[in-house]
Amino acid sequence: MMTGMNTETCAPADSAALHEVIASRPEAVPPLGWGAVRAFEAEHGVVLPEPYRTFVAEICDGLRAGPPFYGLLPLAQTPSDWGSGRPERLLSEPFPLTEAWPWEAEESEAELSEEEYQQCEDRRSPVFDHGSLLLGTDGCGMYWHLIVTGPERGHVWLIDENGAIPFGTRPGTSLMPGTPGFAGWVTHWAQGRSWFGEEDG
Predict the structure, then answer these.
(1) For range 71-85, the mean pLDDT
(2) How confident is the model at residue 13 (pLDDT cuts 50, 70, 90)?
(3) Boundaries of each Knr4/Smi1-like domain copy (predicted)?
């Protein structure tokens, strides 16, 4: 797990970087304002991590052009392909992971009984639905989540049918290298860089 990321106050550098990205994009959705953000937090029993919290309150509440590919969702919305039969999303329940989990690879290496497969499904459900906001989708069931509760609070994760991967450089791994956190993720996209590209220099 990465440490040292400030999720309690919006760093001026993060705010400036986010303003710069949004300023050139007329398709930005207007910000919500602090009253709406605090009401959302009270309803769901969470405090949104910075700089995302300031972003939706003061800068913008969604961006139709991305990131990700199909646009940055307004606060608490789900993508059109998310589906209606999913479990309730519980933002106040801690996100259960602290490192990548390639469940598709794990399951393909073993022949699972029906009971073992169901146990895997039960373990996966909280990864999708606990402690995170949906930021948007790159299509094909690839969803970006901002973690709002638990040890990974403030980090952005890519979660799809194959597994869950954190965005940002971490000790011992570089599955998705870059500057961790919401501002790093947005800036990475604005620079036109691949999510799985070269590590930040």
Answers:
(1) 89
(2) very high
(3) 37-162
Domain residue spans of the chain: 12-78+86-190
- The average confidence (pLDDT) of the chain is 88
The three-state secondary structure class of 103 is helix
pLDDT of residue 4 exceeding 70: no
Q: For the chain, where are the alpha helices, taking DSSP H only?
A: 12-23, 34-44, 52-54, 103-108, 114-129, 182-190
Long-range interactions of 29-33: CB distance < 8 A, separation 24+: 29/60, 29/61, 29/62, 29/63, 29/64, 29/74, 30/60, 30/61, 31/55, 31/56, 31/57, 31/58, 31/59, 31/60, 31/61, 32/56, 32/57, 32/61, 32/75, 33/57
Q: Provide CATH code, domain 12-78+86-190.
A: 3.40.1580
pLDDT of 111 over the 80 cut:
no
